Amino acid sequence: MSTGPGFGNWIAAEGVRRYLPAGIPSIDFRRVDPAGIDVLIIGGGGFLHSGAESFWRRVAEARCRVILWGLGACQPLPGTPDRGRIRPLDPSVMARIRPRIALAAVRDEWTRDLYSLDAEILFCPSIKALEGVPVRPSTRSLYAHHPGLVGKTEAQRLAGLCDQTTDHVRSPGAATPQAVVALHASVGFCVTSRLHGAVVSKALGVPYVALARDRKIVEFVRRWGGGLLMHGEIARVLAPGAGAIPSAPPIDILGNDRFAAEVRRLVEAI
After folding, report:
1. For residue 2, what are the CA distances in angstroms to 67, 241, 246, 268?
2. 3-class DSSP state for residue 158?
3. What does the alpha-carbon distance between residue 169 and residue 181 come to, in Å, rounded to a whole number?
């Protein structure tokens, strides 16, 4: 399941889908009825926030076994437009579900500890959806914008900095997920306020600058590295002669492969 049409949610859920055996249905979380399901695999990036609380309460009231895969909490940092509107899912809701969690893999230690989960820390399963993507790095840059975390004025300034210092490619708002992946694979580096701008760049080995606007992206860079985490002004790292942004060598996917095998064994045993 994915939380909706957003790129990050799509690619994380698509990665989970590709790990699973054919025939397991994928259902939008807004339409799923946990009461009629034996095992519910919850995958995708954007579930652990207050906006999805009604879904989690339905899961808490059901009796199905639960598998968590690739989830991470989110918490906009002070000064961001979404601060106060989006909060992490209340841990008391997860506490009601925890006894029925059969397997869990989350993105970072913060998520694991916030919800007191017996969970592995694994790279986002979106890496499976990126297998075989040809990477053709260039001198161009990409600014991947999150409107909820960066205001319009600041976004224009950031895009302007990219325009001034590189052959800047702006991400089209209505692009298909496949087109967004291809765009990431075609640039020399990415400036991103979106978590999955950093995730995709890291997975493809593309250097990236992550803007610290939500704790989830801070935790991602802290856990997985491969880029620069900027809390303030980025002009100095984009200026000519500033030096290369560190490369982001691809990671192996053995952890997710092993977790996928455990999921398959559990599902097949039902």
Report:
1. 14, 42, 32, 23
2. helix
3. 13
**In the chain, what are the domain boundaries?**
7-128+254-268, 140-238
pLDDT of 172 higher than 70: no
DSSP state of 232: S
Q: Which residues, 6 or more positions from 168, have their beta carbon under 8 angstroms from its beta carbon?
A: 140, 141, 142, 143, 159, 162
The residue with tokens 């994928």 is 26
CATH no. of 140-238: 3.40.50.2000
Q: Are 144 and 197 in contact (CB under 8 A)?
A: yes
CB 39 within 8 A of CB 67: yes
User: Which residue, 137, 238, 127, is CA-closest to 185?
Assistant: 137
What is the C-alpha separation between 229 and 197, in angstroms, rounded?
13
The 3-state DSSP class for residue 209 equals strand
Between 53 and 104, whose confidence is greater? Answer: 104
Note the pLDDT of residue 73: 92
Does residue 253 surpass a pLDDT of 80? Answer: no
In order of 116, 188, 196, the CA distances from 112 in angstroms are 6, 33, 19
Alpha-carbon torsion 68, 259, 75, 126, what sign? negative
What tens digit of pLDDT does each residue of 63-102 get?
889 999 999 998 888 877 766 677 899 999 999 999 999 9
Residue 18 · residue 43 · CB < 8 Å: no
